[in-house]
Structures are given as C-alpha cells and as structure tokens.
Amino acid sequence: MLNDLYSYLIQPLLSYDFMQKASVSLICLCLSAPLIGVFLTLKRMSLSGDAISHAILPGAAVGFLFSGLSVTAMTIGGMIAGIVVIIMSSLFSRASKSSEESNLAVFYLFSLALGVLIISLNGSNLDLLHFLFGSVFAIGSETIVLLGICTTVTLIVLSFIARPLILDIVDPLFLESVSKSGTWVHICFMILAVFNLVSSFQAIGTLMAVGIMIIPATSAKFWSYRLTSILVISVFQALISSYVGLIMSFHYNVPCSPAIIISLSTLYLVSFIFGSHKGIIKKFIKGKHYEN
C-alpha cells in the first residue's frame, strides 16, 4: 500500500528530470503570483490581471519572431507590451474620464487579437498553443532562473511597498493627502503584476497564467479576514493545486496547465462551501444561531 502511494505520488518527482524542473518552476510561481493576486482582488482589479495576461501576447510574439523560443527576448517583449497597455489605458481613462478597466479591456482585446495574428502569420498552430497554454514539461533552466528572479524581486518589492499599497486599498484619499507615493506605488505594483504574468506564461501559458494568480487569492478569503493569513493560504492552495496538476498530467496524460486550474477551482468550491470565514455552511450555522 505504502509502496503504491510512493510510486504514484512521489516517485515521478524524484525519478524524472523534466518533473523536477516543472516542480521547481511551479514552486517559484506559487510563491509570488498568488501574492500579487491577493492585492489585485483587494483592489477589485481581478479582471485587470486577466487583461494584462492577454496584453503581453503581441510583445512575446514579436520576441519569438526575432529570436525564436528565447526566454529573454519573449520576456522583454512581453514586459514592454504589458507596460504599454497599462500606460495607454491609464492615459485614455484620464483623457475620457471613463473607467480604467473599460479602457484596459479594449486594449487587451486588441493586443490578444494582434498577438494571435502575428503568431498565426509567422508561426504554426503548435507555437500558438505553446503561447496560450504553456508547456511546463518542456521548461528549461533559463525559464527557471527567470521565475526565480521574478519570485525574489516580487517578495523584496512587496516588502517595501506593502504599507502604502494597503493604505491605497483601504483609503486612497487619505494616502493622497499625506503622501504623493500613491501613484508610484500603484504603477510599481502593476509592473510587478506584468512581470509575474510574463514569467508564468512561459510555464502555463497566457490563458492559464492569471488563474494561478487570482483563483487561490479569491478562495483564501473564505478562510480568514487577516491579510497575512490570506497570503499564506493562497500560496498553500497554489502549491497543492500545482502538485495535483503535475501528478494528474503525468499519470493520465492530460495537459498540465488546465489540470492545475481545475484543481484550483475545486479548492475554490471547497472554500466556498466549508470556509471558516465566509463559507456557506459557516454563514448558515451563524444565521441559525442568531435566529435562536
């Protein structure tokens, strides 16, 4: 029995080099992306993460055209495209006095269409699938280094901007009255979001990258109201789901990225029902207690 469990759950991670590389890359991703997702959800910008993840596609596609599957070229291209979309959406929202999210939606749809067009005209269907869904089992050392750098930078920068970022979420008008750092903190945070999405699309693709950022952050809030606890729970759920996705993909020959997102969605459903803070059962029991 124990030998069967070992051979099923642990041995694949120890016996195969591609599984080890995939595990390390996903661990790096899980230690940074959910943290960004928590702050995005608190800022009510969850859909912005989805928009940015698609906005990086044309930049990465241009990098691919010039240098092939070069991690450096695609990362630089994706970063430039993501930052340009953020800046343009901000400028258009200020000029037209419309919401930033509505302008971001326009730019991300244009970017997504442009990226798919560039890849379709100059690449193959396999290249398009690689961009959209990633290929975590084909990940190289260069990508692992990029993900490690991304995780390190994210943790360091968040430790410096955490307080003004939290204040910007809770009371942006007060932050604006006592400091001029609000705008710069927001821009810095959005650049971090772009960096995480650009790094993660190398492993799980642009369509799935935002899932590992937003889903665990959303489900963690069903378990606690404390920010520190939410951050820890979101990372833990991302790690568990990544492991389950890897094992499912290895044994049942299913795509790894969708398997990870399905695992995250399952944990979200469990959190929604059984969560100790806002779960349905908790609310039902609390409501019955008040009725008595």
Polypeptide structure, described:
- By secondary structure, the protein is an all-alpha fold.
- It has a single domain (2-291), classed as ABC transporter involved in vitamin B12 uptake, BtuC, CATH 1.10.3470.10.
- The chain has 16 helices and no strands.
- The protein has helices spanning 2-15, 17-30, 33-42, 46-55, 57-67, 71-96, 100-122, 125-133, 141-170, 172-178, 182-204, 206-209, 211-220, 227-252, 256-274, 280-291.
- α6 packs across α11 (182-204) and α14 (227-252) packs across α15 (256-274).
- The mean pLDDT is 81.
Question: What's a concise summary of this model?
Answer:
With 292 residues, this protein is mostly helical.
Give the secondary structure arrangement, pairings included:
Elements: H1 2-15, H2 17-30, H3 33-42, H4 46-55, H5 57-67, H6 71-96, H7 100-122, H8 125-133, H9 141-170, H10 172-178, H11 182-204, H12 206-209, H13 211-220, H14 227-252, H15 256-274, H16 280-291
Helix pairs in contact: 1-2, 2-9, 2-11, 2-14, 3-9, 3-13, 3-14, 4-7, 5-6, 5-7, 6-7, 6-11, 8-11, 9-10, 9-11, 13-14, 13-15, 14-15
Output the number of helix runs: 16
The counted number of beta strands is 0
Runs in which pLDDT lies below 50 for 5 or more consecutive residues are: none
Portion of residues in beta strands equals under 5%
Radius of gyration: 20 Å
Number of domains: 1
- Principal-axis shape: globular
Any idea what the CATH architecture is?
A: Orthogonal Bundle
Share of helix among residues? over 70%
CATH class: Mainly Alpha
Average pLDDT for all residues: 81
Structural class: mainly alpha
Biggest sheet layout: none
For CATH, the homologous superfamily is named as ABC transporter involved in vitamin B12 uptake, BtuC
CATH topology: ABC transporter involved in vitamin B12 uptake, BtuC
The SSE string, one letter per element, is HHHHHHHHHHHHHHHH
Determine the N-to-C terminus distance.
Answer: 48 Å
